Amino acid sequence: RHACAVWRNRTAKLNTKEAVSRLMLTEEAAAVGHEASIYLSLNKQHTEASKAQTQTLECAANTDVTDTFMEYITSLHVPLKEEDQKTLNSEMANKDSGHEDVKEHRSNLEKEDPESLRQRGNDLFKIKQYTEAISYYSKAINIMSGNKVDERLYSNRSLCYWKLNEYKLSLDDADKCIEINSMSLKGYCRRAFALAELVQKDPTYCHYSGAAKAAAALTIHHEPTWRSHSLMKKYFPNLNIKEASSATELMQLCIEQDSTILLKNSDYELDCLVIMANVQIVGLKRYTNVNCKRGIAILGHRFGRPVDCHFENLHFPPTCRDLIVRNGSITTLYRCQASNGERGCEDFPNCQGGPGCKNKTIVSCAERAEARPGYRKSSGLVGHAGLQVEAGTLYADQCSIVDCGGEGLLAVGEGAHAVVTNCEVMKNSQAGLEVRNGGTLKATGNKIHSNKF
User: Fold this and answer.
1) Which pLDDT band, with edges at 50, 70 and 90, does 35 fall under?
2) What is the DSSP string of 89-111?
3) Which of 25, 252, 299, 374 shows the smallest number of beta carbons within 10 Å?
């Protein structure tokens, strides 16, 4: 409440550049804006909350703040999720009720055993009381928050949501389960079945069939008996799982239509990778290294038809060139790390030919800038985006887009679309996310910080 009052008073004074400089561009100002946005969102004042959050992020972007502070101001997003609202309202109610009530509340929580709550939830699940079971799993999760939550709680709650046809919530819990244990059998199973339903029923997920197949393939890899499960047969009757132990095998399998390729080893060194078929490329280890010295191109079928391609658990290292989506193709990335893209001069746009200069021509970077009178002063070779969309669509979810050669992701030109969710975008040589010339970008729930531009 106090932060909100300070923020409103400060905002009312922002009528001169001097005031903006004095009041906005400090870490303390960003902290006040963050606290105010949370308070306003809790009180359903969403317009002001969004304004406060926008000012907070603008302040942080123009202030030298630590990574820890960035994590703090991006830990909650406005408008608040229902789960966050309940948690914060509960904490505020406890504070208002007095110290003795708080102590009693904490004492009661300590008496509740997460394992007992989980078992009670399991008992309710067996008699098909799914909503009640969810409440017990949620209580156990809340008690364990701050410590490592038992992945079974998310797995069980995911199944309950699936039984109640709440497929998006089921997917969210499956992802949390995988976040705890990157090779969780039940996590991937829940994810496969939730995505299979969402692909059929929610237009937002119509392009995630490859992601669903990848989750199903990982389930079967970890437990082969799941292939004969009735739901697996129902959702994935023609699942074509292949394994690649070498770069040569990977290149050969990439031309086989509708195949899910599991990468058995840790490193794959290729000259280039051209994808012209619907494929899913999935690392069995996180992160499986895929280094393509001349880049990765999702070009579509040779007869002009676009393709759907899915990448999962992969790492594109700094020595890997750009990943480019063209010809109307669709690419999804899940739990990947992109650090690729052709490198430009380290000091771009102010390269003077010193260490880190990539210019090998007879005209130096400094001379190039002087030879262009009338242009904005800049010098140096521009790096390339790690992920580029030129004519098609790219979805990135729960990925790290870090230290790319130029931008982290670039959508350029009409017909180029990108959707980035729940990703960390940081330390890229130029902008973290960028659109140009009619491209479109939708970004939600991301941590974007410490990029050069």
Assistant:
1) confident
2) HHHHHHHHT-HHHHHHHHHHHHH
3) 374
